[in-house]
Design brief:
The complex is a heterodimer of chains A (about 325) and B (about 350). Chain A has about 325 residues and is mainly alpha-helical. Chain A folds into two domains: about 90 residues, no CATH class; about 210 residues, MetI-like fold (Orthogonal Bundle), CATH 1.10.3720.10. Chain A contains 13 helices and no strands. In chain A, α5 packs antiparallel against α6 and α9 packs antiparallel against α10. Chain A is globular. Chain B is an alpha/beta fold and about 350 residues long. Chain B has a single domain, classed as P-loop containing nucleotide triphosphate hydrolases (Rossmann fold, 3-Layer(aba) Sandwich), CATH 3.40.50. Helices cover about 35% and strands about 20% of the residues of chain B. Chain B has twelve helices and 13 strands. Chain B has an eight-stranded mixed sheet, with helices on both faces. The radius of gyration of chain B is 21 Å and the shape is globular. The chains are: A mainly alpha (about 325), B alpha/beta (about 350). At the A-B interface, α9 and α10 of A face α2 and α3 of B.
Chain lengths: ~325, ~350
């Protein structure tokens, strides 16, 4: 399994190189001039020229490319074209916020989605099942920013349980937890909707298998049949969906971050895009690619933990 | 000479009916069958696919899906209790403990993500109040009993690391774990190679003799019946159409369906290329004909067969050999036809 992990990480290198090249090209194809964005409409041609030189945009494109690629591997990701701070510092400053939000919503989503999906499958075509299915459909079709605003109105403005503008304060534990709670619930509920649906259909499949009948014929209690015999077999599709959704979540959290005024990768990338901050965009893309590769690897390793028939070679 | 006293049956099924709902209407898949199983007896249930033989076993154990299935019986008596009237929890305690079941498909009947050891241990933990270590020791002894080579080293392996025959041995070990009084074996050898089949059958016979348990053996293979059974019940379309001791049935098959079944066994000891078949098929559950259900395929069918359902009656009052047939059952056809016309 260690060798498998090492090999998978090694295979990630060409992926990373390809993505970096594409990012490098793409950000430069996008119309707009960073110098212009930084200095504004009224800037003189002279000032623009000086700015471009300072940003290194006057140099030949291949030189910029080589410098970028070399930098990524030596830890020098360049300076943000807008703030002038090192790109890596900018990213690492917000990364913990994104990671904690992602993990918290994953936990909430699984804690709600897996039992609810199993429950729904056990009561197939009864009113519990219909209610759960309608609920999860609602969760899937609800835009994250709308639910975020509703949560904010209900729990922060009406009930005053949570701060309206959390800003991601983390001085004390309670401050940290309170500022994380609503955004995590918002994304967690959407995730729960996904997980409920997959768990339900996958549990329906495994509950109908012959080995469940065998377990019942042995006199195994229902609770053990559901959680030990059926659930473990039903988990593979759930893990797949969670893995895919985690990748999406890291980018999709931007609207939640804006509504709750939280720092995060999503907000950073939208800002960088608006300001044509090439270097920051490039750095962010590298991080995204890396995260996706790691999430996929973790998904594959989890398969092996669940199903002994999965072999790594 | 007097007939030997019949010992009290271990399992006594009275008027068992299992129905399924298809588009809002209930149709019986098993139609009011009754039989008794003596201690250490092997009763074979024989018949084509869909005749209700597996459903009978599942009904006894209460494993018929409740969403669209229903089991009714005047009694399924086991150890002084009526299984048809037990609560879910009481029934759970009987399953795998007093009565256990071996299934047809060893490839899919074991859980792929749990170890063999765990799956055998489980029944012991839930029924015998053994500690984990004791249960594992017992499970290991069971795997040895069913002759799994180097059971100890294979205890923590998973089903996919076992062959079909070995998996069926594991199934048998699981079924035997709590020393049940009755084993329901639902075509346990059908999915296996012929040589493995013989080994599994020999094993079952051996274990039956050792433990004194009774067995209901479900099969469509009459060769297996001859080798294993004490008594045979032939089922057709949810009914028992003939029941007799194995010797009697092979010597004097009476129901036209039994006769046709025996004729359609492929023989390698006779120089013929001809294979007898029974024309037609079992009528679907929701389109059962009136009268005798075999009439449409029966070479002996009379008018009465198509009009009235024959009862299962002994050939003569003393005989344990019973047949459900107007023509062969020793009925006075002329009188019956007259009655039917009145």
């Amino acid at each position: 399994m260690l060798r498998f992990t090492a090999r998978r990480l090694l295979f990630a290198v060409p992926t990373l190189l390809a993505v970096m090249t594409m990012v490098f090209v793409l950000v430069r194809i996008v119309p707009g001039d960073p110098a212009q964005t930084i200095l504004g409409d009224q800037a003189s041609a002279e000032a623009l020229q000086i700015m471009r030189e300072r940003l290194g945009l006057d140099r030949p494109i291949w030189e910029q490319y080589l410098e970028f690629m070399g930098g990524v591997f030596t830890g020098d990701w360049g300076q943000s074209m807008v703030t002038g701070k090192p790109v890596l510092d900018e990213i690492l400053r917000v990364l913990p916020y994104t990671v904690e939000l992602t993990i918290a919503s994953l936990v909430i989503g699984s804690l709600i989605g897996i039992p609810l999906g199993a429950w729904s499958a056990l009561h197939r075509n009864q009113w519990i099942d219909y209610l759960t299915r309608v609920g999860s459909l609602l969760g899937l079709s609800f835009p994250a920013f709308v639910s975020a605003i509703l949560l904010l109105i209900a729990f922060s403005i009406q009930l005053r349980w949570f701060p309206v503008i959390s800003g991601g304060g983390r001085a004390t534990f309670s401050e940290w937890a309170l500022s994380l709670a609503l955004p995590a619930i918002n994304l967690g509920l959407i995730m729960a909707a996904y997980i409920t649906r997959v768990t339900r259909s996958s549990m329906l499949g495994s509950l109908g298998e012959d080995y469940i009948r065998t377990a019942r014929a042995k006199g195994v209690p229902m609770r053990v049949i559901v959680w030990r015999h059926a659930m473990r077999n039903a988990l593979i599709p759930v893990v797949t969906v969670v893995g895919l959704y985690l990748g999406i979540l890291i980018g999709n959290s931007v609207l939640t971050e804006i509504v709750f005024n939280r720092p995060g990768l999503g907000k950073l990338i939208v800002g960088a895009l608006g300001q044509r901050d090439y270097t920051l965009l490039q750095g962010l893309m590298v991080i995204y690619t890396f995260v996706i590769v790691v999430v996929n690897l973790m998904t594959d390793l989890t398969y092996g933990l669940i199903d002994p028939r999965v072999k790594y070679q | 000479m007097t007939a030997p006293a019949t010992p009290a049956p271990v399992l006594d099924v009275w008027n068992l009916t299992t129905s399924f709902r298809i588009e809002g209407t209930w149709y019986p898949a098993v139609r009011g069958i009754s039989f008794a199983l003596a201690p250490n007896e092997t009763l074979a249930l024989v018949g084509e696919s869909g005749c209700g033989k597996s459903m009978t076993a599942l009904s006894i154990l209460g494993l018929v899906p409740t969403a669209n299935g229903r089991v009714e019986a005047d009694g399924i008596m086991f150890e002084g209790r009526d299984l048809a009237r037990l609560s879910d929890e009481e029934m759970r305690e009987v399953r795998g403990n007093g009565i256990s079941m071996i299934f047809q498909e060893p490839m899919t009947s074991l859980n792929p993500v749990l170890t063999i050891g765990f799956q055998v241990t489980e029944a012991l933990i839930y029924h015998q109040n053994l500690s984990r270590a004791e249960a594992e020791r017992e499970a290991l002894a069971l795997l040895d009993l069913v002759k799994i080579p180097s059971a100890k080293s294979r205890f923590r392996e998973y089903p996919h690391q076992f062959s079909g025959g070995m998996r069926q041995r594991v199934m048998i070990a699981m079924a035997l774990a709590c020393r049940p009084k009755v084993i329901l074996a639902d075509e346990p050898t059908t999915a296996l190679d012929v040589t493995i089949q013989a080994q599994i059958l020999a094993l079952l016979n051996e274990l039956k003799a050792e433990t004194g348990m009774s067995m209901i053996f479900i099969t469509h293979n009459l060769g297996v019946v001859a080798a294993l059974a004490d008594r045979v019940a032939v089922m057709y379309a949810g009914d028992i159409v003939e029941i007799a001791s194995v010797g009697e049935l092979f010597a004097r098959p009476t129901h036209p369906y039994t006769e046709a079944l025996l004729r359609s066994i492929p023989r390698s000891d006779r120089d013929t290329a001809e294979l007898h078949t029974i024309p037609g098929a079992v009528p679907p559950i929701h389109r059962m004909p009136k009268g005798c259900r075999f009439a449409a395929r029966c070479p002996l069918a009379q008018d009465i067969c198509r009009a009235m359902d024959p009862p299962l009656e002994p050939l003569d009052p003393e005989s344990p050999h019973a047949v459900r047939c107007w023509v062969r059952g020793g009925h006075d056809l002329a009188a019956l036809t007259e009655d039917a016309n009145v």
